[in-house]
Structure to design on (614 residues):
């Protein structure tokens, strides 16, 4: 089996999470890395045994079979389109791009069987994967609601550059940066795009993108979602899903745990809500394994194009509403 | 839930008649609503022709009295008996879910089917057991968990099986007397049935290892032992139980170690990142 030559475009904070997880992945050769900061790319290359380093991402063409694209959001579309058009597969950090229209152009550019997957890594968290299984199993009955909050003070996050403050690079604020995770999970759980979207957002002083956002969604089968995202406040960082017969709660802080209650479940009738204790999985490694296996076998990606489109469709709908500046 | 323990003996009737009499004597309140799936779990330990016939008879009686209810059989034996007319539940071979355990048991793997609705009836034989003194419904209930959690201590699994998968109806059966006649104990409480069995063997139920373990987490049921059948066997001596508990502790320690070592290894790797985060929080370094 020939190893898949994987390149890295953008060597920022998130790539520093991906690389250790990808080291030693069977059938994958870490082939090249590109970053405008050549010193940083070189340091990463030395650490992870990557033979080729450059500033210009397009120098990777011809030397890689697939790339992990982790540059600022607004640059994804152009870079991914070029690589897909040259037959190179793309695992693209979230948000895949800044609008559904750009996503469609990226997908249309793919040649020679090249494929695009959004790196919505939270789907690979043990408790989120199990949450999806619980919902799909029907233990909760008909899905009624999804609620949750994700976010915390911006200064406490690890940023190498401050591109998130710049709408030309970020394509938006907390919604497109943090919110896309829960929006993607909600679309995944609900099985498609919502039929209505309501959005409220605020900008903290000194910011030119929204720092707090609330989204309310209604899906065609009546399921509702109520989600909050913040750069300014510490939210619960958890997702709660309710069905006709029960509920399930997954916390980002405790990815190996999931609390489940269903009034119909024999085990809950005997002993109330159950806490599932899940085996440890590195979400970045699980995501890369899935990406590589799907490329080898031709199986569908877990994150399907229509789901990426639905998530970005929600972002588009939200950004048609003008954020309110806080006093 | 009723905690009465019904005792029933064959008397002069043949076995099918005696079994029909047993089911008819059970309180109507214990049976499931129409349409609720029914699972009959057949104990492996002390299995006999009587156990199999009792389970089949219960299944046929329920099929007649709860028409429309799906009836499944859980048979955790390596060579499952034939169960014509009933579906296998596949609890030991189907999807599983790891749930949080009691005490030191971090997690217990249970059948995913336990998150579905069902009425559970357990039919089992009884006999002496080194680690529990007597083997009855609590042992039979735990056999599925024994199969799914081979590295966990069995004492913990018996308590977990009661907590998470206890029977809605527990039936214990055996043969004793001269000439040999069949006897049955039946209860909507697995604990009451186990306690009645122990008492019939001349033991103090509260001192049985399994019941004592359950009593750490919930009060044991009060039950009145009416004149009932003599089980016809002697419980295992206490010294054998003490010896078995040493083995149990060793298994428990090994299982805990198997959980803890990978967790410690993972967390040790996190220490440099943690130090960096604290340094960044204190303004001593840039994250």
């Amino acid at each position: 089996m020939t190893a898949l030559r994987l390149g890295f475009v953008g060597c920022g904070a998130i790539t520093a999470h991906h690389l250790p997880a990808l080291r030693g992945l069977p059938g994958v050769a870490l082939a090249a890395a590109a970053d405008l900061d050549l010193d940083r790319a070189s340091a990463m290359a030395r650490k992870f045994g990557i033979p080729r380093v450059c500033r210009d991402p397009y120098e990777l063409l011809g030397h890689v079979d697939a790339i992990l694209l982790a540059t600022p959001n607004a640059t994804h579309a152009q870079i991914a389109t070029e690589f897909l058009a040259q037959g190179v597969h793309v695992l693209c950090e979230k948000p895949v791009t800044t609008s559904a229209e750009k996503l469609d152009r990226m997908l249309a550019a793919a040649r020679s069987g090249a494929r695009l997957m959004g790196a919505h890594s939270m789907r690979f968290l043990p408790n989120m994967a199990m949450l999806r299984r619980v919902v799909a199993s029907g233990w909760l009955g008909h899905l009624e609601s999804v609620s949750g909050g994700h976010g915390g003070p911006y200064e406490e996050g690890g940023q190498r550059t401050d591109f998130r403050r710049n709408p030309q690079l970020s394509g938006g604020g907390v919604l497109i940066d943090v919110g896309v995770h829960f929006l993607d999970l909600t679309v995944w759980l609900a099985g498609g795009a919502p039929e209505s979207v309501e959005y409220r957002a605020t900008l903290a002083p000194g910011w030119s993108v929204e720092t707090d956002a609330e989204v309310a969604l209604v899906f065609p089968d009546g399921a509702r979602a109520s989600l909050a995202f913040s750069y300014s406040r510490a939210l619960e960082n958890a997702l709660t899903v309710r069905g006709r017969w029960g509920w399930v709660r997954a916390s980002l802080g405790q990815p190996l745990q999931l609390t489940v209650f269903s009034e119909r479940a024999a085990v809950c009738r005997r002993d109330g809500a159950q806490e599932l204790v899940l085996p440890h999985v590195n979400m970045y490694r699980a995501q890369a394994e899935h990406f590589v296996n799907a490329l080898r076998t031709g199986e569908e990606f877990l994150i399907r194009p229509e789901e990426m489109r639905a998530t970005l469709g929600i972002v588009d709908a939200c950004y048609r509403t003008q954020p309110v500046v806080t006093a | 839930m009723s905690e009465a323990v019904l005792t029933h003996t064959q008397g002069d009737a043949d076995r099918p008649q005696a079994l029909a009499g047993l089911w008819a004597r059970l309180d109507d309140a214990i049976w499931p609503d129409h349409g609720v799936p029914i699972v009959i779990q057949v104990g492996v330990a002390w299995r006999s022709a009587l156990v199999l016939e009792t389970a089949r008879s219960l299944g046929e009686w329920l099929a007649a009295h709860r028409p429309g209810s799906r009836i499944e059989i859980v048979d955790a034996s390596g060579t499952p008996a034939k169960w014509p007319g009933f579906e296998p539940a596949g609890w030991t071979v189907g999807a599983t879910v790891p749930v949080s355990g009691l005490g030191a048991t971090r997690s217990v793997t249970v059948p995913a089917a336990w998150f579905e609705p069902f009425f559970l009836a357990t039919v089992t034989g009884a006999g002496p057991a080194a680690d529990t003194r007597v083997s009855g419904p609590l042992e039979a209930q735990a056999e599925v968990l024994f199969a799914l959690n081979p590295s966990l201590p069995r004492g913990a699994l018996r308590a977990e099986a009661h907590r998470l998968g206890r029977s809605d109806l527990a039936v214990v059966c055996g043969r004793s007397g001269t000439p040999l006649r069949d006897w049955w104990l039946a209860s909507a409480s697995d604990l009451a049935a186990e306690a009645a069995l122990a008492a019939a063997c001349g033991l103090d139920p509260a001192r049985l290892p399994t019941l004592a373990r359950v009593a750490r987490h919930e009060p044991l049921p009060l039950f009145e032992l009416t004149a009932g059948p003599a089980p016809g066997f002697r419980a295992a001596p206490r010294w054998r139980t003490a010896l078995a508990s040493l083995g149990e502790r060793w298994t428990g320690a090994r299982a805990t170690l198997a959980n803890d070592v990978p967790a410690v290894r993972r967390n040790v790797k996190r220490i440099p990142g943690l130090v960096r985060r604290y340094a960044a929080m204190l303004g001593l370094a840039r994250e």
